[in-house]
Structure formats: structure tokens, C-alpha cells
Design goal:
Elements lengths: L6 H28 L10 H9 L13 E9 L2 E3 L1 H11 L5 H18 L7 H13 L8 E12 L4 E13 L7
Antiparallel strand pairs: 1-2, 1-3, 3-4
Helix pairs in contact: 3-4, 4-5
Length: 179
């Protein structure tokens, strides 16, 4: 008697295997997400490897939150924080993913501006000037502008936020043709 596997039998075996694999994957993902270390298998080598290489997270644990960047733009007696504004807009409307991209852009550009030597001739200066002009469309050439870039660090054992100012930069807004 010869053992033959038909295409239909092969499809059933593959489908069953995939369903078993997905079921195990979902069970492990839920267990790792909601019961970290609370159950016996949570400390096993398999689950630890799964946590390390497959599972996304940890999310919103106190020790995972280290710092929060902020850029405050001050002009004409008004102050805004475009990084925080974009984060708030995203939290209010989670489908607006572009808000996170804009928040990250301002954060990266502020970091680049902090690190560059010739500040007003840098690409980071031009980009932050465009962000400032976009946020304050009524700003005029010659108006004084101040950028304050700082990080807020959370200290868990003291339960307080500590500010670390990276730069405080003053300049007068020039026409766009000059940058």
C-alpha cells in the first residue's frame, strides 16, 4: 500500500498547522502583555526569548518612560510647544499619524540645532525657522524670537519631573529669502 498525499490533504495539514501556530502565538502574546512575571511560564526561557525578539513593548511602564523633549517658541508675548502640540493632537485624533511624524521632525531638528556650531547658517536653523513661521504666520521680519529646548526627566523614587535645558537661543526673524 502506497502512501499518497493529495493536494486537498496537504492544504488541510498546512491550514491546521498555521491555525495552531497562530493560536499559540496569540496566547503567548496576551500572556506576556497582561501577566508579565505573574505566572509560572512567564519566567521560562521560551517566553523570555519571545518577549525579547517578538513581543512589542513594554508599554507605559514607569521605568520605560525616561524623558520628554520640548521646544518652546517665544515671540510677541506668546509661547508654544510644537512638540507637545503635535503629541496632544495625535492623542485627541489617533488616526492622524502625520502628527507623530511632525513631532519627531521638530525633535530631531532641535537636537541637530543643539549640536551644530554655526547656528544661524545651519540647515536645522532654517527648518526651525520654517516651523516658527508656520506656527506664527503673523510674525514679521525683525521680530524677536526665542527658542528654549529642554528635556523633562522623570525621577520615579521622588515622583517628580526635572527639567534640563539644552539651549536657549535668541534671534531676530529675517526674511525667508535670507535662509
Amino acid at each position: 500500500m502506497k502512501f499518497e498525499i493529495t493536494i486537498q490533504t496537504f492544504r488541510r495539514i498546512v491550514t491546521t498547522g498555521i491555525l495552531i501556530f497562530l493560536s499559540i502565538h496569540i496566547m503567548i502574546a496576551l500572556a506576556v502583555t497582561f501577566f508579565q512575571g505573574d505566572f509560572r511560564l512567564g519566567n521560562s526561557k521560551v517566553v523570555r526569548l519571545y518577549q525579547r525578539f517578538v513581543h512589542l513593548g513594554p508599554f507605559y511602564r514607569e521605568e520605560a518612560i525616561k524623558s520628554s523633549p520640548h521646544l518652546v517658541i517665544l515671540t510677541n508675548g506668546k509661547a508654544i510647544d510644537p512638540i507637545q502640540e503635535q503629541a496632544n493632537e495625535y492623542q485627541a485624533h489617533p488616526w492622524k499619524i502625520n502628527r507623530l511624524a511632525m513631532r519627531d521632525f521638530v525633535h530631531r531638528t532641535s537636537n541637530a540645532f543643539y549640536r551644530v556650531r554655526n547656528k544661524e547658517r545651519s540647515a536645522a536653523f532654517r527648518k526651525l525657522s520654517r516651523v516658527t513661521k508656520a506656527r506664527y504666520p503673523d510674525i514679521q521680519t525683525g521680530d524677536s524670537v526665542s527658542w528654549v529646548y529642554f528635556h523633562k526627566y522623570y525621577v520615579p523614587n521622588e515622583r517628580l519631573w526635572v527639567n534640563d535645558t539644552l539651549f536657549h537661543y535668541f534671534f531676530q526673524m529675517e526674511s525667508e529669502t535670507q535662509w
